[in-house]
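Pasting as-is:
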Amino acid sequence: MNTKNYFIPKLLILVFTMGLFSATAIAGPIPQPTKGDDGIYRHAWFLETFLDLTEDLGTAIENGKRLVIFIEQRGCIYCTKVQTQLLVDPKINAYIRKHFEIVQIDMWGSKEVTDFDGEVTTEKKIARKWGSLFTPTIVFLPDSLEKVKGKSGAQAAVAVMPGAFGKGTFLAMFEWIQKKRYETGEHFQKYVNDRYWKKQGGRPVK
């Protein structure tokens, strides 16, 4: 028996099996978030922060990402939907983790927060200052420190997503921000419609 020829197929099978195992592990389900003592769900990959928002923006920029702030509250069913349904969708999860850093603010929380304009306040007060009337409110920030200088988060925001939407619209908003379509003057709804018809193979002929 030619032991050399016997060994090669065995080696190939081993390599293939290891590769298959690794691919399966990577494609596994996204872990569900943990519910904190404040009743708000958090994912382990969210940005660890002291809520100095200018520092958080700087960290996001250093990581080559955009900063997004989620304003949430205990008992909010739509916040729960975002955390336990939308952010665990593999496609959404992969896109957001690649391009964004997420910071959470509790609408009724008492943690100290430093706004972009330098004001030191609390979560509860900053939610009111920014005019957040419901949860979740998802605030998208600019891509540079210069663009937030001297402004509050509400003044600096390039867009705000009010509430929880379906998976397609939710992901489309993050894409629209990442591609900086807001700088071209393109309306978000147009982007959503164009995205939909592109997936359908084109708009119907009238």
